[in-house]
Specification:
Layout: H1 2-27, E1 32-47, E2 52-66, H2 70-75, H3 92-121, E3 123-125, E4 132-135, H4 140-144, E5 151-156, E6 162-164, H5 168-176, E7 183-189, E8 192-198, E9 201-203, E10 208-210, E11 213-215, E12 220-222, H6 228-251, H7 262-275, H8 277-295, H9 303-316, H10 322-352
Antiparallel strand pairs: 1-2, 3-12, 4-11, 5-6, 5-7, 7-8, 9-10
C-alpha cells in the first residue's frame, strides 16, 4: 500500500504540474507533441487530436514536449507543425505564462489542500509565542541558564543562519536545522535583553535534537468555509518561508546532510500514511509547494531558468548563444544528478543507520 500511495503522490504532483504547462500552451495555440507522466520506456500511449498522452515506466518526473523546443522538435522530426504554432513564435509574455503555469498548479494544489485540511479538522491551532513555559531538569537549557518566563526573540545557528522567533514554531524549525556547534539565543527577560549560548542534545525518547524547553498552548481558532482560505494561506506562508530559508542555506553549502530524495519521500509517505489520511494530504501539499519553489530557481533546466533566459533574450532583442545555453544546461544537469545521487545515499544511510 505504501508503494501505491507513493506513486499516487508523485502522480498527482507531477501530472498537475505538467497539465499546467499543457493547458497554457494549448490556450495560446502552441503545438504540443506529447504529454508524458514518468520517464523511460512507454507503458501506455493514446493519441489525441494532435497530442500523444503517455505513461512511462519510471514514475519520477514528466514533461510536455512543445513545438519550438529542442527536445520536442528532435523527438518528432516527422510531425508537420502549422505555421505560427511553435513556442518561439509566441509573444514573450505568453511564453512566460506557459513556463509559470506548472508551478502555479503546484501552488494552487498546496493551497487548496491546506485550506481543506483545516476546514475538515474544524480548527487551526496558532503556534504559541516564544515565551518559555518550563525548563527541563538536567537539560542543555537549564545548564545554559534559561528560565521559565524568558522570551526567545531570535536564534542564530553556528553557520550564521538567523531566525526571528516570533512563535515557538520558529524555534522548533531552527532547532530542526541544527547540525553542530552552539545556538545563540536572543532572550528578553523582563526588560533586559540577553544573549545565551546553548548546545542542543539528541533525545532518544523523542528521537530528535532538543534544548529542553516547552512553550505554552497555542490558541485554537474555529475554522469554517469562510475563514479556511485565510488559515490555508497562513500555513502556506510558513511552509514557503521554511523552504526558502533551507534553499538559502544550501547555496551556502549548509544543510546538505538533511536533504532527502525519492527514498526519503517514500519513507515520509509510509510515516504520514500511518498517521491518517489528513497527514498524507498534508505531505502532498508540502511536496507540491516545495517542487513549485524549486522549479522557480534560476537554473537553465528548470522553469525559473527558462523564464530568465526568455526575459534576457527579450531585453537584448536577440537569441543567446545556443552553445552557451546547451553548455549551461549540461552543467546544471550534472549538478542535479550528482545532488540526486548524494541525497539518495543520505536517505539509504539514514535507513540502515
Amino acid at each position: 500500500m505504501t508503494i501505491i500511495y507513493f506513486i499516487l503522490l508523485l502522480t498527482i504532483i507531477i501530472c498537475l504540474h505538467e497539465a499546467g504547462h499543457l493547458a497554457a500552451a494549448k490556450l495560446f495555440g502552441v503545438y504540443c507533441f506529447e504529454y508524458s507522466f514518468g520517464m523511460g520506456p512507454v507503458l501506455f500511449q493514446k493519441k489525441g487530436r494532435e497530442t500523444v498522452y503517455s505513461i512511462r515506466a519510471v514514475p519520477v518526473g514528466g514533461y510536455v514536449a512543445l513545438a519550438g523546443e529542442t527536445d520536442g522538435d528532435e523527438s518528432y522530426p516527422d510531425v508537420e507543425v502549422p505555421p505560427g504554432r511553435r513556442l518561439p513564435d509566441k509573444p514573450v509574455w505568453q511564453r512566460i505564462i506557459i513556463m509559470l503555469a506548472g508551478v502555479t498548479m503546484n501552488f494552487l494544489l498546496a493551497y487548496l489542500i491546506f485550506c481543506m485540511i483545516f476546514l475538515w479538522a474544524g480548527g487551526f491551532q496558532e503556534s504559541p509565542t516564544g515565551k518559555i513555559e518550563s525548563v527541563m531538569e538536567n537539560s542543555p537549557a537549564e545548564r545554559a541558564g534559561l528560565q521559565a518566563g524568558d522570551v526567545i526573540t531570535g536564534i542564530t545557528l553556528s553557520d550564521g543562519t538567523h531566525f526571528r522567533t516570533e512563535t515557538f514554531q520558529d524555534l522548533q524549525i531552527a532547532t530542526a536545522m541544527y547540525e553542530e556547534g552552539d545556538l545563540k539565543l536572543e532572550i528578553l527577560r523582563g526588560n533586559e535583553q540577553l544573549t545565551v549560548m546553548v548546545t542542543p542534545e539528541y533525545n532518544e525518547e523523542y528521537e530528535s535534537v532538543m534544548i529542553g524547553i516547552t512553550g505554552g498552548a497555542g490558541n485554537i481558532i474555529r475554522v469554517n468555509f469562510l475563514n479556511c482560505w485565510k488559515y490555508g494561506a497562513v500555513e502556506m506562508k510558513e511552509a514557503a518561508g521554511l523552504m526558502l530559508k533551507t534553499i538559502g542555506r544550501l547555496f551556502r553549502g549548509k544543510g546538505l546532510n538533511q536533504l532527502s530524495g525519492p527514498v526519503g519521500i517514500y519513507s515520509a509517505t509510509e510515516q504520514s500514511v500511518s498517521y491518517g489520511f489528513a497527514s498524507y494530504l498534508f505531505l502532498i501539499a508540502e511536496l507540491s509547494l516545495n517542487i513549485g519553489i524549486i522549479n522557480l530557481l534560476p537554473l537553465p533546466v528548470l522553469d525559473g531558468g527558462q523564464i530568465l533566459i526568455t526575459a534576457a533574450e527579450a531585453a537584448v532583442h536577440r537569441k543567446l548563444n545556443e552553445k552557451l545555453k546547451l553548455g549551461l544546461m549540461a552543467a546544471t544537469w550534472l549538478i542535479l544528478i550528482s545532488l540526486m545521487l548524494f541525497v539518495t545515499w543520505n536517505d539509504i544511510s539514514r535507513l540502515i543507520g
